[in-house]
Amino acid sequence: MADHVSLSVPDESTCFDDDGRPKRSGTVWTASAHIITAVIGSGVLSLPWATAQLGWIAGPSVLLLFSAVTCYTCSFLSDCYRTGDQLTGRRNYTYMDVVRSNLGDVHVKICGVIQYVNLVGVAISYTIASSISMVAVKRSNCFHNNGHDHASCNISSTPYKIMFGVLEIVLSQILNFDQISWLSIVAALMSFTYKTIGLGLGVAKVVQTGKIQGSISTGNEIDKVWKSFQALGAIASAYSYSLILIEIQDTLIKSPSAEAKTMKKATRISLVVTTVLNMLCGCFGYAAFGDQSPENLLTGFGFDDPYWLLDIANVAAVIHQVGAYQVSCQTLFAFVEKKAAEWYPDSNIITTEIDIPIHRCKPFKLNFFRLIWRTIFVIATTFISVLMPSFNNIVDILEAFAFWPLTVYFPIKMYVVKKNIPKWSGRWICLQLLSGACLVISIAIAVGSFAGLVSDLKAYKPFK
């Protein structure tokens, strides 16, 4: 890993920040939109199923617990954005820069592997999820016109994964985070749209039946235990965004307060919003369907009508996943392009930017390396998604791989170093106990998710 490089200028201006880079324009609201776009994915629609695996007591309790842990540890991570003083210290542009500044190169390499493997997996999972939503629209209309037993309503998801991939090839040429704020805002609005529809349909079903489904606790069968572990992964993924937190924080303007203070506010706003939505979706979906809750509230056909409303919800889900793919992958794109420029500074293919005029808009900056590598990346993730059978299990495995190190271990360890918390002090012991408990949870998620994936692979036939 190359050493952290920072440009310094004597004074800030109206055009440049204290590190010599163009003036940042992000606010608490754009940061909140980025977080909501990354966090409130279609995985939230599996929360009724997750709640069903845990029961009425454990389900909502775990939802609240993961929210609290994420908020707590992400505040530690926000404090590490600058090395030294929160207003004048050196900036760390990525999660890996933060780890390097506080923990050294060995931890950086471990962090890099975990973070970027996870981002590749996230891209694959969004491709799978979007195709499921597109297939659901097609099947919903087919069922409405022909009935639920019609043979033509069995539809392959492969063409829809390819369609999503083609669109992402185009959008992946957007240069960086600052230029996708509009996409995050649109995606966040779409996310609210389909969550609201799913919630509304759950409430309507409870009102229609006049009773609340579900049980207080879960059973003891071994299959139920594996599914309970998977449920923990589904809930954890509903709050996971720490792997791109620093990149989001790096878009924020410094005034009127330090970036860490603004980021903490955005985190609180976003997690309050997501927790309320998660609780409502999870609880009302479980109340509507009980132990028979589908793995996806909108695509599992727990609801049949109104079919047009389901179509709107699933289209909104696709639009959200289009934006979420870009929010997540920009970090990986920037890392690869930065390293390529460091390794081959004299290569015209890597460093040359060509301005392509666009009528009434800023010129589009074409870079051949960016065009080629990002296109190859999208094609590769699309192909892998075709081979994978299940959205939920893929997401759960990713969460098992990343939740403990990126959301808990590294933030806590860096906070201990930054604040010089004495070893074996009361606070140090409490933080280590929290980290250890979350490690146990991650192991449980991994065991349950691999068991579920193996079961799905036995019946799955790619390209069909």
TrEMBL record:
Annotated signal sequence range: none
Domain Amino acid transporter transmembrane, chain residue ranges per copy: 25-454
Keywords: Amino-acid transport, Membrane, Transmembrane, Transmembrane helix, Transport
Compartments (UniProt record): Membrane
Gene Ontology cellular component list: membrane
Sequence intervals crossing the membrane: 28-50, 56-77, 182-208, 228-248, 269-287, 307-325, 371-391, 397-416, 428-454
Single Gene Ontology BP annotation: amino acid transport
Protein name per the record: Amino acid transporter transmembrane domain-containing protein
Organism per entry: Solanum verrucosum
